[in-house]
Description:
This protein is an alpha+beta fold. It is built from four helices and 18 strands. Strand 15 (about 210-215) and strand 16 (about 215-220) form a beta hairpin.
Amino acid sequence: MAYTGTEIFNIAIAIIDELSQAGTISENQVKEYKYRAPYLLDMWQREAHDILRTVTIARHPLKNLLGTRFETMAHKNEDCSFETRESAGAAVFAVTDQAEVYIEDLTGEGVEGFFSRDEADEEAFTGLISVPELTSPARYKCRFDSSGPVRIRFSGDYYYLFYAVAMFDASFPSCAKVPEYGEFVKYEMPSDFYGVSEITQEMPKAGLMHKWENDKDLYVSYRFDGVLKITYRASPEKIASLTQLLEVDDASAMSGAYFLAEQFAISDMNDALAARCRGKYDELRTKLKKKRALGRQTIRDVYGISEIR
């Protein structure tokens, strides 16, 4: 269930007994409370309320037609090339500096396609992708059509490193759709991500290895095959108006009302009322903290149904 800030505010006004004799709220009577309420509610939701959301990641790693190529290799004086045994439709690689990278058939004829550098706009190419001088490694994604085996050839006049090289036998509508390749694949969490609560695997065909960076970026092993469901704590949207809809259940809404009532009572120097509101607020917070999702349970077969063949 969702509540507006106004609904929570009105409950708080009832708690501090500021309703009219007819049981209504007089705007003139609660005007000062109303000015403060959005700021107080925003403070309350950030310190007391957990919003849980779920991100689903489905992975089925594509086979690299070049074999496993996670390692870092160096281009010095001679070209380095890798060939497929069948046609390919996409390629990915990372380089550290100025380079010439060719994607061509086995006769040396360049294939036509598009490439993107670090998720930038696509550019067309025919055989050659010219990598400019770099100050940090760049990741390239390419898509193209081929009618037979192809190769990727790393060339150029200078020393550089390249790694995470792959070719796939699938077609993609854009370079952005070409999958990442590397020992770990990065997944960015939503902008409201505050912290992870739980990671659940569904139908895994390969064990999960993962790591976190910057408290927000999830790196999953390329070999993981299955579905991940990541339950995370979300940062609430800033409350700027009491008309906003808040993602709260009944108990959380009541805790917000008692929090507001306590703050209003403190400003009115009504210590006894403030203490009662604080007590109810702490009681509700304790109950909310005890709420947990049910874990997996084994269903007891009391009738012996599982033994029927």
